[in-house]
Amino acid sequence: MSDEWWPSGAEPTGPAGLGERLLGxxxxxxxxxPPQLLxxxxxxxxxxxxxxxxxxxxxxxxxxxxxxxxxxxxxxxTPEPILGTIAGATFLGGARAEVAQxxxxxxxxxxSDSGNQVGVMALTVDAVDDAVRRMLHRFxxxxxxxxxxxxxxxxxxxxxRRLEPMSVAAEIQWSLLxxxxxxxxxxxxxxxxxxxxxxxxxxxDYALNDHLLHVATIDAMGHGLDAATMATVAIGAYxxxxxxxxxxxxxxxxxxxxxxxxxxxxxxxxxxxxxLDTETGLLEWVNAGHPAPLLIRDxxxxxxxxxxxxxxxxxxxxxPVVSERALLHGDQVLCFTDGLVExxxxxxxxxxxxQLIDAVNHVERSDAGVRPIVRALSxxxxxxxxxxxxxxxxxxxxxxx
Length: 401
Known about the structure:
This protein has 401 residues and is α+β, with helices and mostly antiparallel strands. It has two domains: 18-160, GAF domain (Beta-Lactamase, 2-Layer Sandwich); 166-400, PPM-type phosphatase domain (Phosphatase 2c, domain 1, 4-Layer Sandwich). Helix content is 32%, strand content 28%. The chain contains ten helices and 18 strands. The strands form three sheets. Strands 3-2-1-6-5-4 form a six-stranded antiparallel beta sheet, sandwiched between helices. A six-stranded antiparallel beta sheet has the order 7-8-18-17-13-14, with helices on one face. The radius of gyration is 23 Å and the shape is globular. InterPro entries: Bact_Sigma-Reg, PPM-type-like_dom_sf, PPM-type_phosphatase-like_dom. Residues 184-400 form the PPM-type phosphatase domain. It comes from Streptacidiphilus jiangxiensis.
């Protein structure tokens, strides 16, 4: 592509500070850049430090493949499986990979922002050393931030990630979700929805406000648009109450009133609202008709976090009792919806919570955090259910570090 869009006088000279000058110019230009020119900006920036054949690979909604972004000047191929490929390993592990080639080194870099894995960047350079690695790390970090920012103004990234048709209900649910993962020094979270292209009533939400992590997982009754509409109201009510800085019992009461007023007495949403103090490890929760979360310690489920339960949201339950548990460093809490354990196999037998616990205890783990664990667990469970997902099946994991 032409370099006419690159500002006059911005061509860097000399080796010292090359990366800083390039990335500074890139950041200055990006502020007023329309989304369709982001790819040419990335390609042009890479070219100026000797990078070529730049690809941006985005995970499809089912997290089975990485799909190349087909935009201006990018190198485009076919979707790559996440499992068994270098790009996939970079996506799952969040670590750079370098592959020697005849014409240089192909470098794969995670596109990540606070643990939210946007995708993978791949490009070829003549050679790598510590200075080049540092520049590429900064380049990928800036690219990830710009992709996230521009995604709010365009449909192109969402369209790229679709390998199957998506239902209207799923469209609503995906637009409602926060980033699927977050990782900061004291806490990490990750969630996943099934069936990715048809999910309707399941959702989750979280926010890290200072040292308090707030989490909610919900399951609205029914299927299709009705369930998606109810889930939207439930999450909206949860966010509104959470941002009013009230306690978990009052959040439940507010959500309960919102669902009852909007949908009447015959509709309900099961929900689990949690709050984790990331300084002390104190976990508090209210369970409104939801499956009890699992406490994982040293990679093994040690107990169900049973506690006082109240009626599902919308049924007018009494003020709930808030349960508490002190976590240890490294503890993980796994929340899930009943669609994960109530699926029945071809012979009519229910999948069941014991099989879920067994799968959790044997899922492949790495040092890359909760995001690849949740993905691997979700896909493994789907295989164990014979590929069946007749109801929404959601996982959400919290790790206190």
